């Protein structure tokens, strides 16, 4: 591998944009190329990434990395130097894993997958349309979620449609009002079938915003097993959950 390619790989690692295949290549280079190891050591010294995390999955992955790297070419180093090298590698591994898990945090996953719920209830068209419907959904579709919520709630009160809670919950999500979003996206009354898995998708995102990966996982698994909306996205999100 050329020097510029190695530098790009190291840059991706510290930026948190490294893919799983590139990560494996970096592991290999750390074992085989002293210059790569030295470059990472230099960059790691500039980063303040020694964060403690009480997460079992994190600890398991860290143990796997530690075992892999701590066995690198043991016989090539004098005993005194070996202790110093292992100490550096442990620090480096913490840095690597902090980058990986930082980018897979629930909030970052929420931000990557969230888009406002599409208006399938009252498509806005020219011509006669109820004024309140126009106010509610034109404001919603313009992205003025704070302004849209009162109109949507008033429309729901007048029509009795529980399905409108989808848009209310989606608007609360966009405003980072997590508890209100979960309340609206987990209605007690039965929603129409066309809305059932839309509600579940946005409820899963609300749980991610609340940093509740376990509840998000349950909802996503149900979408994958039984749903007909965002099934591929749910599978992708499940694979990325911490």
TrEMBL record:
TM annotation in the entry: 79-101
Signal peptide stretch: none
Highest rank taxon of the organism: Bacteria
Listed SUPFAM superfamilies: TPR-like
Gene3D superfamilies: Tetratricopeptide repeat domain
Keywords: Membrane, Transmembrane, Transmembrane helix
Name of this chain's protein: Tetratricopeptide repeat protein
Lineage: Bacteria, Pseudomonadati, Bacteroidota, Cytophagia, Cytophagales
């Amino acid at each position: 591998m050329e020097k510029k390619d190695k530098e790009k790989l190291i840059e991706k690692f510290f930026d948190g944009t490294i893919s799983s295949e590139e990560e494996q290549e970096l592991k290999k280079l750390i074992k085989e190329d002293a210059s790569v190891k030295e470059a990472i050591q230099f960059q790691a010294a500039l980063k303040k990434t020694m964060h403690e995390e009480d997460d079992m999955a994190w600890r398991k992955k860290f143990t796997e990395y530690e075992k892999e790297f701590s066995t690198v070419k043991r016989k090539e180093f004098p005993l005194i130097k070996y202790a110093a090298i292992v100490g550096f590698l442990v620090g480096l591994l913490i840095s690597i894993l902090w980058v990986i898990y930082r980018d897979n945090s629930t909030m970052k996953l929420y931000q990557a997958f969230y888009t406002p719920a599409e208006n399938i209830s009252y498509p806005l068209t020219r011509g006669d349309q109820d004024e309140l419907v126009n106010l509610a959904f034109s404001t919603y579709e313009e992205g003025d979620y704070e302004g849209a919520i009162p109109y949507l709630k008033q429309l729901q009160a007048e029509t009795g449609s529980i399905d409108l809670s989808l848009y209310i919950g989606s608007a609360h999500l966009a405003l980072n009002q997590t508890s209100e979003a979960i309340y609206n996206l987990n209605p007690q009354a039965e929603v129409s079938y066309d809305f059932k898995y839309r509600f579940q998708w946005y409820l899963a995102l609300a749980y991610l915003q609340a940093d509740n990966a376990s509840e998000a996982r349950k909802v996503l698994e149900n979408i994958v097993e039984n749903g007909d909306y965002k099934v591929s996205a749910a599978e992708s999100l499940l694979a990325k959950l911490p």
